[in-house]
Amino acid sequence: MQTPIKKEIVDTLIANLGIQDFAKATIREVKQVAAMSEQQSGVEYIKMEMGIPGLPAARVGVEAQIRALQNGIASQYPDIQGYPELKKQASRFVKAFINVDISPVGCVPVVGSMQGAFASFLTCSQADKRKDTVLFIDPGFPVQKMQLQVQGVKYETFDVYDFRGEKLGPKIESYLEKGNICAIIYSNPNNPSWVCLTEDELRTIGELATKYDTIIMEDLAYFAMDFRQDLSVPFQPPYQPSVAHYTDNYMLLISGSKAFSYAGERIGVVCIGDKLFNRHYPDLAARYEGLPFGLVFSTRMLYALSSGTSHSAQFALAELFRAACDGDYNFRDDVKVYGERARKLKDIFLKHGFYIVYDRDLDQPVADGFYFTIGYPGMTSGELARELMYYGVSAICLVTTGSHQEGLRVCTSFIRDHQYEQLDERMAIFAVNNPR
C-alpha cells in the first residue's frame, strides 16, 4: 500500500540536510525533516520527537509573576542566592512531596534544570582532583552529555536496561571502585524510557554514593509524574522516591518546566543536602577562597554563568510551590493527561505489531507518562524512525539517549485528540507494508 507521504520527499530532505545516519539524527533535525515534509506534502505530522510541555502554564504561577512585574521587580537584580520566599517554599516543597528536610539556604534558583545541571557538573568535577568523571545511568537527556563536552569533563555511561534490581549495585560499583567518579546522574521518572527506579534501587545508589564519596545528581524533571500512584498530596505518603533518603551526598534538580508547564520562563531549583552544601572540599577551598561546596555552586558557578535567575519567574515558582504545599493547587491534576495520552498511544502501537522496549519496572509494567519507547520486529532504530516518517510520524532514536536498545522515544506532549484516529489508520497501513 502507498505510504501517506511519498518516500521521495522524506529521503530528499534527509539527504539535503546531510544526515548520513538517521539513527543519530538529533531532535532538532528530526523536527526539521517533519516540518518540511509536512509543508511539502500537505499531510499533517503526528509529532512525537520534542519533549516540550503541551499544556498551558499553571495559572497560579502566571498571576504571581504578573503581580511581581507590575510591582516593579523587573528593575531589580535578583540575589544570587535566590528570592528568600522561593527558597523557603522550595524547602517546604521538598518536605511536603519527598519527605526530606533541606534548609532553605540549600535551595538555589536556577535558569531551568539545564543551567542547574551545568553548574552542578562544574562544581562536582572540581571538588576533588582525583575524581574527574561523571557516570550516567542511561538512557538519559542527551544535552547533559553535551554540557560535559563543552566543559571538557569526561563521562562514563551504561544502559540500565539489563541492570535493574539486584544487578544495579554491582554494575555501579564496577565504575566507582576505579576512584575517578565524581558524580552519578539519572532522571526519575526517566527520560526517555519512563522507567522509575525503586526504593531498593535508590537505597543501593545512596549507599554506594556514601561508600565511595560520590555525589548523586537526581534529575526530577518529571516530578511526581509516575501516575501509577498519587504522589501529589502534600505531607502525606506516598512520596516522590528519592536517593536523598539514603545518602547525604545529593543534589536534587527540580524543574518548573514539566510539572508546572512553566518551561518558557526557564525556572527551577537545585536543592543541595545540608551536609553537602556546608562541606569543605580542599580542592574547592584552594580555588575559591575557602568557600564550602554550596557557596561555590551559587556565588561562583551560577554568578559566573548568569548572575542570577529571572526575578519575576522566581516569584512564580515560589507561589506554585506554596500553593502545592498548602493544598490550594494540585499540579498532578493538570499533567495527568500525559499518562492518559500514553495509554491510548501504546494501545494503538501494540495493536499494529509494535512492542514497548522499556516495558517494566521489575515486577510492574512501566507507568504511562510523558514518554514511552517503541520498537518493531526486525527493524533497527534508524530504519524504524525513517520508515515512520513516510507515515507522518516523527520520533527520535533511543541510541541518541545512550540506550543500547533498538527503538524510538515517543513523547505524548503534542498529541491532539483527532490524531489517535490518524495514527490508528496510518499504523494499519504500516503493518501491511511491513509484515512481521
Furnish the topology, listing elements before pairings.
Elements: H1 7-16, H2 27-41, E1 46-47, H3 59-70, H4 84-98, E2 107-110, H5 112-127, E3 133-138, H6 142-151, E4 154-159, H7 168-176, E5 181-187, H8 199-211, E6 215-220, E7 250-255, E8 268-272, H9 274-277, H10 282-287, H11 293-306, H12 311-325, H13 331-335, H14 337-351, E9 355-356, E10 360-361, E11 364-365, E12 371-375, H15 381-389, E13 393-394, E14 396-397, E15 408-411, H16 419-433
Parallel strand pairs: 1-13, 3-4, 3-5, 5-6, 6-7
Antiparallel strand pairs: 2-8, 7-8, 9-12, 10-11, 12-15, 14-15
Defining traits:
about 425 residues; alpha/beta; seven-stranded mixed sheet; four-stranded antiparallel sheet; about 40% helix; about 15% strand; globular
Describe this structure in words.
This protein has 16 helices and 15 strands. The protein has helices spanning 7-16, 27-41, 59-70, 84-98, 112-127, 142-151, 168-176, 199-211, 274-277, 282-287, 293-306, 311-325, 331-335, 337-351, 381-389, 419-433, and strands at residues 46-47, 107-110, 133-138, 154-159, 181-187, 215-220, 250-255, 268-272, 355-356, 360-361, 364-365, 371-375, 393-394, 396-397, 408-411. The longest helix is centred in the first third of the chain and has 16 residues, at 112-127. The protein is globular and about 70 Å long.
Q: What percent of residues adopt helix (DSSP H or I)?
A: 40-55%
Structural class: alpha/beta
Shape: globular
Main sheet summary: 7 strands, mixed
In total, the number of strands is 15
Please identify the oligomeric state: single chain
